[in-house]
């Protein structure tokens, strides 16, 4: 079975930047995010041995979510410019590894990954897909052929989530994650959900009704706590809008070609020169043969 590994470039970039001290080259260039990014990349190359690989990035500017909901991610503190300044370096080295980069104005890296998964499973249904990310939003993408390689803390503590692991962790199926966020919301993305409904209540409702749609379809037929029912009815529109905001797109307009993602030999001399320029001696020793 062939394996496609997809990397959420922005999630990995942010995780690396915040996990590592402010490493600088002899020339004074800040490179902690670059170092962390490629430390993880070399780790997954060794562990996962992909047949295909690609990296997805966000693009500067508003996404469709920002345009439809001005408060989307509004409470997040804007990362420092020195984080963004490291992105060109990362993209330069990713390209030197012969790994294609996918991005699209108006869409997040999550949406690009969701679209690539959909296109791959439509055309090559037997392909196993592993998503490397630090973002738990990606759990909704898990299915029989898709797993999430999650960075839990820093860049060394990792775990792989398949359907069974998600059920064990949340008591929910992957497809219920968006319904869970529709009810509970997501403070990190400033998605409101239904006020007063926390994780426990959201899970209980979804275990009972299976989906947000079915909950509202049967809300007048089933016995539900009067106060909870009133809250659900009052914020019905907000619940479905929150579900929509939390849903990763699978139809972003990108031109994806799996053949171009085939893992092939890279110019090791070029990578060594790039790493030497950044004083990444320890990473040079970890390069695959």
Report on this model:
It is a single chain. The chain is α/β, with parallel strands linked by helices and 289 residues long. It has helices spanning 9-19, 32-48, 64-68, 81-84, 87-96, 109-123, 163-170, 177-184, 199-209, 212-217, 226-234, 236-246, 268-277, 281-285, and strands at 3-8, 52-56, 101-102, 128-133, 146-153, 157-161. The chain has a 6-stranded mixed sheet. α1 packs across α2, α8 (177-184) crosses α9 and α8 packs across α12. The model has no long low-confidence stretch (mean pLDDT 94).
Mean pLDDT over the residues:
94
Order of helices and strands: EHHEHHHEHEEEHHHHHHHH
Report the total helices: 14
The rounded Rg comes to 21 Å
| Largest sheet features | 6 strands, mixed
Structural class based on helices, strands and sheet pairing: alpha/beta
Low-pLDDT segments, ≥5 res: none
Number of strands: 6
GO molecular function: 5'-3' exonuclease activity; 5'-flap endonuclease activity; DNA binding
Pfam families: 5_3_exonuc, 5_3_exonuc_N
GO biological process, one term: DNA replication, Okazaki fragment processing
Keywords: DNA-binding, Exonuclease, Hydrolase, Nuclease
């Amino acid at each position: 079975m062939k394996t496609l590994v997809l990397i959420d470039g922005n999630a990995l970039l942010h995780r690396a930047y915040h996990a590592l001290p402010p490493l600088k080259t002899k020339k004074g260039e800040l490179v902690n995010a670059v170092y962390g990014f490629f430390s993880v990349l070399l780790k997954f190359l060794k562990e996962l041995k992909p047949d295909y690989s690609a990296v997805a990035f966000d693009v500067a500017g508003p996404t469709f979510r920002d345009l439809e909901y001005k408060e989307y991610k509004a409470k997040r503190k804007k990362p420092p410019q020195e984080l963004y300044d490291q992105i060109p370096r990362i993209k330069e080295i990713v390209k030197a590894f012969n790994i294609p980069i996918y991005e699209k104005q108006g869409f997040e890296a999550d949406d690009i990954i969701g679209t690539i998964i959909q296109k791959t499973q439509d055309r090559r249904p037997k392909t196993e897909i592993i998503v490397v990310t630090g973002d738990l939003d990606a759990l909704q993408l898990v299915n029989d052929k898709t797993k999430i390689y999650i960075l839990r803390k820093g860049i060394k503590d990792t775990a792989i989530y398949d359907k069974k692991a998600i059920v064990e962790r949340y008591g929910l199926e992957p497809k219920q994650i968006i319904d869970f966020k529709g009810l509970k919301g997501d403070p990190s993305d400033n998605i409101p959900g239904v006020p007063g409904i926390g994780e426990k209540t959201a899970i209980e409702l979804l275990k009972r009704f299976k989906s947000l749609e079915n909950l509202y379809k049967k809300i007048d037929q089933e016995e539900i706590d009067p106060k909870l029912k009133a809250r659900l009815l009052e914020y019905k529109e907000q619940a479905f809008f929150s579900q929509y905001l939390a849903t990763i797109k699978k139809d972003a307009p990108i031109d994806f070609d799996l053949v171009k993602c085939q893992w092939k030999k890279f110019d090791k001399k070029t990578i060594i020169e790039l790493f030497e320029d950044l004083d990444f001696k320890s990473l040079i020793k970890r390069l695959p043969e």
